[in-house]
Each structure stands twice: as C-alpha cells, then as structure tokens.
Amino acid sequence: MPELPEVETTRKGLEPLITSRKIVSVHIYKHRLRWEIPSHLKNTLKNRTIKKISRRAKYLLVHFDHGQLIMHLGMSGSISVVSSFEPLKKHEHFELKLDNSSSLRFHDPRRFGSILWQNLNETITLLNSLGPEPLSYEFDNDSLFNSSTGRLRNIKSFIMDSSVVVGVGNIYASESLFLAGISPKREAGKTSKKRFKVLTNSIKNVLTDAINNGGTTLNDFSNVDGNPGYFSQVLNVYGRENMPCLRCSGKIKRIIQNQRATYYCPKCQH
Description:
Layout: H1 4-18, E1 23-28, H2 41-44, E2 52-56, E3 59-64, E4 67-72, E5 78-83, E6 92-98, E7 102-107, E8 114-119, H3 125-128, H4 143-147, H5 155-159, H6 170-180, H7 193-212, E9 253-257, E10 260-264
Helix pairs in contact: 1-7, 6-7
C-alpha cells in the first residue's frame, strides 16, 4: 500500500505537470472504486484551472477556486500524467484531460482507492479526525506523550493510528522504532516522555529519508513517472527476518501485531 512518502513523492511529481493547467474534459470509466466517483465531476471540473496540489495524510488534494478534488491511492493505486493521445490502459478508471494535450490518469487494479470532492470551505468527514502531519511543527516533542495517557495498546499500533499522527505506515513504524531503540511490544501508556521525544525525531528522520529516496518499492507502487521508489534499499529491519542487526550482534525477529508483520531486534530494542 502506498504510504505517506509514496504519496508525497507522487504529489511532488504531479505538481509541475498539472498546476495552472485548465481541464478540458473529465472521463469516468469505472464509477465504483472504494466509493462511487461523483458523476457531477464531469461538469464541476470542466474548464476549471488547477491552482495547486497538496497532501493531507495519504490523501492528495487538487485545488480549484471552488473546491478540492480528493484522491486516495488505496492498496494499489497510482497516478500518471501522459499524452491524451496515448491509448487507455487496463485499470485506468478516471481521467482529466488538460489544455496542453496531456492527461492525468488514475490507475487502480484493486479499486480500493477513492476520488471524492469537497466544496470550498468544507472538510469531508474522512479528513476531520486526522492527527497532525509528522513533518509539521504541530507534531512536536509532546504530541505522542500527551496522546498516550491511558493507552494500553502496543506502541507500534499506537503510532500507526491516524488520529494520533498521520502517515506512519507499517514499514515506517518498524523502522522508526528501531531507530529509537524501542521495542514494538512496549505499551504506549507506559512509555516515558523522554523515549517519546526520541521516537518523534526518529519518525521525522525515517519519513524524510523515505521521501528523499522516492518512497518504498513494494508491490504495485510506482512514481508519477512510472519508476519505482528506492527506500527499500536502505531498510534496517523491515523484511530482514533472521538477518543480523545492523546495529548490534542480534538477529532480526518477525512477529505479527494487529494482523501486520513487525520486524525488530530483540537485543537492542527495549
């Protein structure tokens, strides 16, 4: 599943290609993704100019003067900008034809992605309960500790909770906890403020590195130019079961937490 770094990489790739472009036409080839694509987009977006593209958590927001198009890549989604004359490929369900003979196309084989609309000065329910962005000033040294009071769940699932902080997916949670030297089995509510401060900085560093390296090469993810991400080449624990720890003489262990694989070093993560 594309995570925050992959979505941010997509946003950065799309920005110079679609900003200030006018939409000539909108085409919906498969209405039903995770939710129904609003049919009104054909009229709502026609002849409108794209002002900018931003990101909130794993959602891409394409801004217009009267609202925002909201896109989520789901499990296997990707977005590309190609010539409008290029033949439509299988699983390309949505297309914005632009005024320079290029097209933004939404590709999603599993159809768990979503394309929604919110009017200007409106926030849809999906975005209302989201926590702070991990690379923002809002996510400071006190954020995690203040949210952890009374939390009995393990710390890995705690930092993966989008109401606590957005965008810390499964891979990046394992990597951040390794960098901070914290066991993923530790109870969130029994973790000290000092350790949360270290974890906060680790999350910021891991996500920044991932964005700089183009995301993680996993499954169907590719950048807007069709190339894969490269962050998986420098993962410390994820996918390295029974391999030597890169920091000590321990061996990487794999366990299942909340139906997700967790990788950590039992020797140097406590």
